[in-house]
Every structure is written in structure tokens, then in C-alpha cells.
Specification:
Number of helices: 4
Largest sheet: 6 strands, parallel
Distance between the termini: 9 Å
CATH topology: Rossmann fold
Shape: globular
CATH class: Alpha Beta
Number of domains: 1
Order of helices and strands: EHEEHEHEEH
Oligomer: single chain
Helix content: 25-40%
Radius of gyration: 13 Å
Structural class: alpha/beta
Number of strands: 6
């Protein structure tokens, strides 16, 4: 059985809703799924999972959330080489530059992006939640 982690930070609940859909998609494909808040995931946990979905909204000038998610992601980045991952998050302004920058970081770290990243402009609609379910399934 494939083991998948869903690691996210959410300020308004939009990214949390997306994380729930990612979890459902992975479970529907038969994976054992563990959900973590960004404060609860560390680099030593990376090896325990076959795939990891990371979720974070755009903050400030289109950057990852800086007090919890960014420090966690920086700490695990060096452990992502060869790891199957996927990215998701919501935004309220801009053109998703934060996601493009994040994808570049993951590629530079040697991670294998399992599918296209999923973004939601503010609250995710049913179409975006379906994309999140597909994202979760792609990690299995």
C-alpha cells in the first residue's frame, strides 16, 4: 500500500478544503494517508512516505507563508531528491508567481512533480476540488 502525506498551512480555510480533497483522492486510490499541519512535519518524516502533497496559499508579495510553512519547507527541501511530490494552494491576487517559484525550487531540489500543481483563486470551487482529488490520486 502506498503511503502519502498531505502537508499544508491554511489561514482562511481555502487551502484546508483543498487538502481535504487531496486526501480523499489519495484514499480513493487505496493509499494510506497522513495529514500534517506544517508545524508537525519534519525532514526526518520525508522517507516514511512514497508521495507528499504540499499545500500553501500565496502570502504577501506572492510568497509561501513565512512563519510556519516556509521554515518547514526549507528544512525538508534537501530531502526531496527523487521524491514524488505535488503542490497546491490558494491565492487572492497576482498571477500565481508564487507557485511557479515553488515549482522551480522543487525541481532544483530534485523532486519529481507527480502532476500539474493546483491553484484556487480564493475559495476552491467544485472543479478545483476535483483537480485536488486527481492530484492526490497522482501521488499513489
Amino acid at each position: 500500500m502506498s503511503k502519502v502525506a498531505v502537508v499544508y498551512w491554511s489561514g482562511t480555510g481555502n487551502t484546508a478544503a483543498m487538502a481535504d480533497a487531496v486526501e480523499a483522492g489519495a484514499k480513493n486510490k487505496g493509499a494510506e494517508v497522513t495529514v500534517f499541519g506544517s508545524d508537525d512535519f519534519t525532514a526526518d518524516k520525508v522517507a516514511e512516505f512514497d508521495g507528499i502533497a504540499f499545500g500553501c496559499p500565496a502570502m504577501g508579495a506572492e510568497v509561501l507563508e513565512e512563519s510556519s510553512f516556509e521554515p518547514m519547507f526549507t528544512s525538508v527541501e534537501g530531502s526531496l531528491s527523487g521524491k514524488k511530490i505535488a503542490l497546491f494552494g490558494s491565492y487572492g491576487w497576482g498571477d500565481c508567481q508564487w507557485m511557479r517559484d515553488w515549482e522551480e525550487r522543487c525541481n532544483a531540489a530534485g523532486a519529481k512533480l507527480a502532476c500539474e500543481s493546483v491553484t484556487a483563486n480564493n475559495a476552491p470551487g467544485e472543479d478545483v476540488l476535483d483537480e485536488c482529488k486527481s492530484l492526490g490520486a497522482a501521488l499513489v
